User: Fold this.
Amino acid sequence: MSPTQPSDPAALGAVRRLILEAERPVVLTGAGVSAESGVPTFRDAQTGLWERYSPEQLATAEAFAADPSLVWSWYLWRARMVRAVEPNAGHRALAAWQARTPALRIVTQNVDDLHERAGADVLSHLHGSLFAFRCAECDTPADVDPSAVVALAESAAPGSEAGLEALMHLEPPLCAACRRGRVRPDIVWFGELLPERAWGDAQAALEECDLCVVVGTSGVVQPAASLPFLALGAGAPVVEVNPDRTALSDAMTHVLRGPAGTVLPALLG
Ligand code: BV8
Assistant:
């Protein structure tokens, strides 16, 4: 499929028409849709406390088993960081589209809650949520307030080197139900299966859609990156919104090269 030229001004018009005509649109988002809110993408280098760690290294059950407090602290820090930022114009444009086209379904790889905080409903969080927790042994859900935990640790030794070190080694609590397992983020780590319901709902949505818009994903992580091809296989046009070329770009029907916070409002305004 030869995509229209990224800079082709007519591409925006063509995609606007597809959006107006679509009766069963699906949007698939990745970390890039949250980038303009200040949430680093997975490709961005980590900064500050975590700069010496790679997400792929920390986002595994092996890393949690090897150093539970390091991985636990990383997730609490990320959750608190998401709480400190706001949805951006891209999130708001998608929520407005869904308000006027309730059939729009949003499938996200993101573990933040910025789509919801912009007022949108999300069909599937393919990789879980920074704000859900469960026992690593018995799967019992656990109630954790990330911001409160981090604030307490910070107040214990504000700003000092020891305080920062302590912030990276907060202990995950024991499960209140089984008293055996440690509480972990309810997030899909590399090497783990996606939640059955979230994955099944996403597959069905992409197989049934008449338009798929892929926003802010490098198209590297599987099986999420296979979803746009279900739409293509079903004969639906697929549009990529991304400032950079990705593993998906050559297969796209249309490519809109630009940041979500600019392109989506222009598309949906
Ligand atoms: C699985 C939660 C079956 C964690 C995430 C060996 C053993 C086992 C599996 C594998 C293996 N080798 C490969 C695999 C498969 C593996 C995989 O795909 N690995 C990759 C690295 C090759 N997948 C898995 O393990 C999956 N499970 O396969 O289970 C299985 C089980 C056992 C054994 C065999 C098979 C589970 C994958 C889920 C991992 N968890 N998230 C956490 O967040 O901490 S994935 C994580 O990375 C994110 O959630 C996200 O999905 C992904 C990053 O992708 P993107 O969202 O695309 O973000 P990225 O940074 O890559 O790109 C950002 C994009 O935004 C860029 O294109 C950029 O240009 C763009 N952008 C930037 N600014 C903007 C913008 N776009 C628009 N506007 C802007 N302003």
